[in-house]
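Lab notebook, bench 4. Still working through the backlog of constructs that have no structural model yet. Next entry is a single chain of 395 residues. Request: give me the structure tokens for it.
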Amino acid sequence: MHFLADPSILLTLSVLASGVSGATLHHGQAVHHVHRRAPLVCYEDNPFRALQRFSSDAAAFCPKFIQTPSEPIPSNLAGVPVSRLSSACTCFQKTAAPVNPVSSPTKSAPVVTPTPTSVASTVAEPAALPPTGQTSLIGRAYSGGKRGLVYDYTSKDYSKFFRDSNKIGFGSNWRENRISAPGVTFDGAFVPTIHVDGNLRNDGWLDKVKALISSGSPMIFASNEPDLREQANLSPAQAATVYKKYVQPFAGQVAIASPAITNGGGSSGLGYLENFVRECGGCHFDLINVHHYVNRGDVNVDQAVSAVKSYLSNDVAAFQARHPQFQNTKICVGEFWLWNASDEEGADYLRKLLPWLDSNSNVACYQAFGGLFPGNFINGAGTGLSRNGQVYHDL
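Model written out:
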């Protein structure tokens, strides 16, 4: 997920008919639309996402609740723990605030390593790796179904609605546990994601992943959006340490992906990945994992589709070409979506984008963020698929 905190920015990549990639033309200049995000920890499993899914209810409820915590909770939000509603509502209100676009150069932003978070000085050493510039490990390509489903602790047994689809190849939930909460089920191949504590540790990870691989997990995702404070929140050096210790040991057993970056600019996004690669000497990658989000308020559906195509075909491809360790890898679009699209606009977005992703030989896998969530790919009542969920099921 992408809920960016000040002062970081997220580029809205608008591709117009003129062919300008990653920007909108404004008085002849390339302009990035920038959106400030909530200055709180709006984490992957934060109830904030439930509020996003029922934005109309949240827009009316949150201002009242923040002022009066005894405000009755709408039925659509009844599943959100009351103890966590305050922070979720604050996140919701901050992200809903409009921000005027600002100008910034399209290509010249410096690559700067973000300030590391505070971690303990005693971090276990990673396993020995080949010298910098060498990748003697034998990789493992991902060859399963391209289309994946994201889910979390709110997703109940909704995977049953995709059980009869031959389009779904895997699913993930930002953690290493297939069952993310009691009552939550997922039927397909499960992809674990490394997540560490403030000491860069996850003591149960290696044993859990060995068991998952034995039961059919086809690949591993590295840290989720380490370039965002609200997500994995790691410096490139820290992300490299995590990768070497927890992901690299499985090279050759399953496909392993680079840390999943946002489509931000400057020291986030591909700029962050540049710094990560410098820190991760000798690391092996089977997939380059990228996320892509744009806002319907900034672009129409056709522009949103063009933005994804341009980002993968131009920006990501150029990054791959610059780095030998990525030149033979394929892309996994670990998350993508058109925020604030209507159900029909979301369906139209998928109809226009999915065939291109499916036919693109450089794309190994992807997950639209509609996922197994009511109000997204699941209808609001939780009784079946929404309109865009049906497209993701069928097309």
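Notes after review: The longest strand covers residues 330-339. The CA atoms of residues 38 and 94 lie 5 Å apart. Flag for follow-up if needed.
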